[in-house]
Give the backbone structure.
Amino acid sequence: MTIESILIGVMLILIQLFALPIIHRTPFKEQKILSLSGGVAIAYVFVYILPTMHEEQDQLGGDLALDSELYFLGLLGLLVYYSVYKIAKTKHEQHPNTSYFVQISFFAFYTFMISYIVFASDVKTVEALFYGVAVGLHFIGISYHIGHGNKTVHRQYGRFILATTTLIGAIAGTIGPSTGLFVDSLIAFSSGAMIFNVISKELPEEDYAHLPTFLIASLLFSVSLLTLKAIFQW
């Protein structure tokens, strides 16, 4: 465990607890914050997450039966969270609380996976900064989209559930395995889930879009990350 990973863990827990107030009380417009979150998140997925999953698949080599097991798990993650989203959406009008708790249950597991990966990977220095910024903004966007439709229940229960699973993931990542098939599977499954969550929830819709912020955030984060990956060989 590094100081950087501890700071990231604390930051992620605070974001889960206070995502709604962070967005509502920021001096920037809600549209700009959500567009910033979406821009950084989509860049993070395509410039960092997908290459990471490719590297992990290459390291598995011929150990398993196929050459695309992790990609299949990524697809499975996308399909699972798409299914949860559709089920929750169809039940929302008649059973809003049931719809909310269906979503929060799956996103609790999602935050557990992300937190586990952060602490198991034990990222350091500049990489930790970029990892923390990307995941933190992603969590702000996700927590906002889950909570803003059912604010009372989210304030009373949901935010504490997400904060708790983030903490549990951090502890598990610290004492659990940091390499191997289990961690690779978590990375792959959560990557698929992240791709769906970013595209479905964080790409700015008409009501929440500030296109210049989205484009600038996405391009600037991508270029910065590519430059640093080339310099530090991440």
Remarks:
- The chain has one domain: 3-12+36-59+70-232.
- The two ends are 18 Å apart (CA to CA).
- The CA atoms of residues 116 and 172 lie 6 Å apart.
- The longest helix spans residues 30-60.
